[in-house]
Amino acid sequence: MSAKPFFHADQVGSLLRPQNLLEARLDWKAGKISRADLRKIEDAAIADVVKMQEDLGLEVVTDGEFRRENWWIDFIEAIDGIEISAPDDDSAFRQNPEHGGTYVPKNVLTTGKLGGGTISIADFDYLNSCTSNTAKVMIPSPSRIHFHGGRKAVSEDIYPSMDDFWSDIAALYQAEIAALEDHGCRYIQIDDPVLTYFLDERLRGNAADIGEDPDKLLGLYGDVINDCISKRRDDTCISIHLCRGNAQSQWIAAGSYDAMAEELFPRVNVDAWFLEYDDERSGGFEPLRFMPDGTKVVLGLITTKTGKMEDPDEIRARIDQAAKVMPLESLALSPQCGFASIDIGNKIAFDEQSAKLGMMLEIAGEVWG
After folding, report:
1. Interval 138-187: pLDDT, tens
2. Helix 350-368, helix 312-322: angle, nearest 10
3. How many other C-beta atoms are found inside a 10 Å radius of the C-beta of residue 367?
4. Are strands 107-115 and 80-85 parallel, antiparallel or unpaired?
């Protein structure tokens, strides 16, 4: 059996889209070009961004999420039984303007029985054909299907029992993972910024406002993720990425990992956690003491929110601090999030993106060899 993929220099996944790709997606939405035409433009852009990653020295590459409008909507919208609707003006989850914007999440409604074919296969096949390095696939967490609407967003006619709702979600994700594995994928990342909402008192209150118990919900989401990944192959790495909001350099949640660490870190059976640690909103490294033996932690110490370069000495010092809590060999380094959680991207330039990835690789080489 081959070892599971693990890299001391890694990345969350999304990358800045080139202008011609952004324009092509707008043309497709306006009906000016076909889906096939858009896919050809995506193919060329993905081939270029894979080469960029390889040239920098990254051993793990992604397609930059170049086929997505944002990190979650394209995947979840492809699930049978799901409808996406415009956000409510009075949404309890409206972003605090002090955090850099006024984002309001779209509604995810379950109006039919969940199911459908596998979603990521063609995209993975193309990415894999572009590289001899490890190709990573990112999929949104099942929590994104439920959190912002709760029970009220799930049809009681279709799912009178929420147990059946969660069972169908688990079956859907199990099928997606199995199909990816059949096509040769050995590195799958679950993106779950929703879990950090349980660290923020305002967002916990918002969950209560829609009739959910945030304490029970946190554990439930952990168990659902376990069900979704329970049938993975022994040589497949499943990681999970947490952040506190990232779209266009904004943020949503704040709070250290203390409020979830003891319950979730030992509970969720992933191989690695990508944890945001680029500023004071994330707290310290002490909660890492709850990580089970053998679990990896990828420290998101390099921000993607601005182009300002970090001091490499400070990054190395923070890695040393984390290594006092868990073994250095179980740690890795990455940016705190992707560079483009939505297609428009963060407020950072292409050369700054490359510089940050390059610095990450240099630091990782010095720390881990």
Report:
1. 999 999 999 989 999 999 999 999 999 999 999 999 999 999 999 999 99
2. 50
3. 18
4. antiparallel
Residue 342: partners with Cβ closer than 8 Å, 6 or more residues away: 69, 70, 71, 247, 248
Q: Please determine, looking at this structure, whether the domain spanning 19-368 carries the CATH number 3.20.20.210.
A: yes
* Angle (CA) 66 70 74, round 5°: 85
Residue 257, classified by CB atoms within 10 Å of its CB into exposed (0-12), middle (13-18) or buried (19+), is buried
Q: Answer with the residue of higher pLDDT: 309 or 281.
A: 309
For the chain, the residue count is 369
* Integer-rounded Cα radius of gyration of the chain: 19
> What average pLDDT does range 188-201 have in this prediction?
94
Amino acid at 159: Y
Q: 27 is written with which tokens?
A: 């043309």
pLDDT at residue 249 in the model: 85
User: Looking at the predicted structure, is the pLDDT value of residue 91 above 80?
Assistant: no
Mean pLDDT, residues 288-294 taken together: 97
Angle between helices 214-229 and 162-182 (to 10 degrees): 40
Compute, in degrees rounded to 10, the torsion defined by CA atoms 245, 250, 253, 255.
Answer: 100
* Residue pointed to by tokens 């554990």: 219
pLDDT > 50? residue 290: yes
CB atoms within 10 A of CB 182: 11
In this prediction, residue 250 has a pLDDT band, given cuts at 50, 70 and 90, of confident
- Residues 318-341 as b/e (b if ≥16 CB within 10 A, e otherwise) read bbeebbebbeeebbbbbbbbbbbb
Task: Give me the pLDDT at residue 1, please.
Answer: 42
Q: Which residue from 26, 138, 125, 168 is spatially nearest to 72, judged by alpha carbons?
A: 138
Provide the pLDDT for residue 254: 86
Confidence of residue 95 (pLDDT cuts 50, 70, 90): low
Which is it for the CA torsion 192, 341, 357, 180, positive or negative? Answer: positive
Q: Give percent above pLDDT 90 in the chain.
A: 84
Phi, psi (5° rounding) for residue 286? -55, -40
How far, in Å, CA of 129 to CA of 126, rounded?
5
Give helix 35-56 / helix 121-129 axis angle, nearest 10°.
50
